[in-house]
Write a structure and sequence with these properties.
351 residues, alpha/beta, FAD/NAD(P)-binding domain, 7-stranded mixed sheet, 5-stranded parallel sheet, 22% helix, 23% strand, binds flavin-adenine dinucleotide
């Protein structure tokens, strides 16, 4: 089955929905293809205790404020997934769930999008596939020797299954800090980071992050010195559970170990720590494998872009992922602006 449309949006998480919202406003025919069976993108799979960096009012997609979650100043992941499901329905976005895009190919004037449910041809593609489906594990000596359980952030749900165990949590970002904090009181936690943890100031939330990312982009666009953006503020947002564990002295980090052994980890100075589980909170890479056939330039898992547009193919846009596709494009509050830019560029008549 082959179908024609103006634009195919790949991915129906927050970034894909924001794209759909703006394309619809501009009257541009499109379809959103999403591999997940249900709405909500990555938010369907987060751990139970995860809370947003920001209050609901600062975590909204274009057009509709996220409603408050009763009793939760910072909403949980289930609330965000429900908000995205409602958003999809309210704006009648043409999302097709359960459709995996396998390849995008160059077909002259059009792009050919091959999926497990047929082929679409379109004059533009917005790629909004996120990172959750591509967990990253660093190469560490002895990883295969370790006899305990190893899991990545994507497989962590709650501390109950680790009760009473020794657990090593690897990673100095938000996921690592939040999971280590979540486990304290349930398990004996060793938190390991490559460099000392860098907390953002306690009063910084998602809105400040958006402002910092925007200021950086503006400075770079105007040829002024790099302000450093969000990274200059720190790596870890001090959400209340993280702050509580840190202030209680329960969240102290050790330097990265040099190797895993059959029973645990070993550090450069010869000290060892036994563990029943290692949780790798070591990040993600953009999910871009389906674009391999286009031969686009890129470094370190990123594609070269001008704004949201692929530098090598003006028919292809990217939303989400991180600052390389626009300031705070990976956040709920930030993706709307870049989605509007991408939709406008696509809606312009082809020259
Ligand atoms: P996703 O939500 O991952 O959606 C992408 C969709 O594309 C998925 O449904 C996926 O299945 C689909 N897909 C992928 N490949 C294909 C394919 N080949 N074919 C078809 N479909 C495909 N953000 C905030 O705004 N505020 C916060 O407070 C916040 N807190 C966070 C805390 C933590 C600890 C973490 C880890 C993240 C947090 N984030 C926060 C970031 C946020 O979770 C992600 O950036 C967000 O989910 C990204 O949205 P997305 O639409 O780009 O990707």
């Amino acid at each position: 089955m082959t179908q024609r449309t103006q634009v195919v949006v790949i991915g129906g998480g927050q970034a894909g929905l924001a794209a759909g919202y703006h394309l619809r406003r501009l009257g541009t025919e499109h379809v959103v293809l999403d591999a997940q069976a249900a709405p909500g993108g990555a938010w369907q799979h987060m751990w139970d205790s995860l809370r947003l960096f920001s209050p609901a009012a600062y975590s909204s997609l274009p057009g509709r404020l996220m409603p408050l979650q009763e009793g939760q100043p910072h909403p949980d992941a289930g609330h965000v997934a429900a908000y995205l499901a409602d958003y999809e329905e309210r704006y009648e976005l043409p999302v097709q769930h359960g459709v995996q895009v396998e390849a995008v190919r160059d077909e002259g004037r059009l792009l050919r999008v091959e999926t497990d449910a047929g082929v679409w041809r379109a004059r533009a593609v917005i790629n909004a596939t996120g990172t959750w489906t591509r967990p990253f594990l660093p190469a560490v000596e002895g990883r295969r020797e370790f006899a305990g359980r190893q899991l990545h952030t994507v497989h962590y749900a709650n501390p109950a299954e680790f009760a009473g165990q020794r657990v090593i949590v690897v990673g100095g970002g938000n996921s690592g800090a939040q999971i280590a904090a979540d486990l304290t009181g349930h398990a004996e936690v060793t938190w390991v980071t490559r460099r000392p943890p860098r907390y953002l100031a306690d009063d910084i939330d998602g809105r400040s992050l958006f402002d910092a990312a925007t200021a950086r982009r503006r400075a770079l666009d105007e040829g002024r010195p790099d302000t450093g953006g969000v990274a200059s503020l720190g790596d870890i947002v001090a959400v209340p559970p993280v702050r509580a564990a840190r202030d209680a002295g329960l969240l102290t980090a050790r330097a990265m170990f040099t190797r895993l052994t059959a029973t645990g980890a070993e550090w450069a100075d010869g000290t060892r720590q036994d563990a029943g589980a290692v949780i790798w909170a070591t990040g993600f890479r953009p999910a871009l494998a389906h674009l391999a056939g286009l031969g686009l330039r890129g470094t370190r898992g990123r594609i070269a872009t001008v704004g949201t547009r692929a530098a090598d193919d003006p028919r292809l846009h990217f939303l989400g992922y991180g600052d390389w596709t626009g300031p705070a494009s990976a956040t709920l509050i930030g993706v709307g602006r870049t989605a509007r830019e991408a939709a406008r560029e696509i809606a312009l008549p082809i020259r």
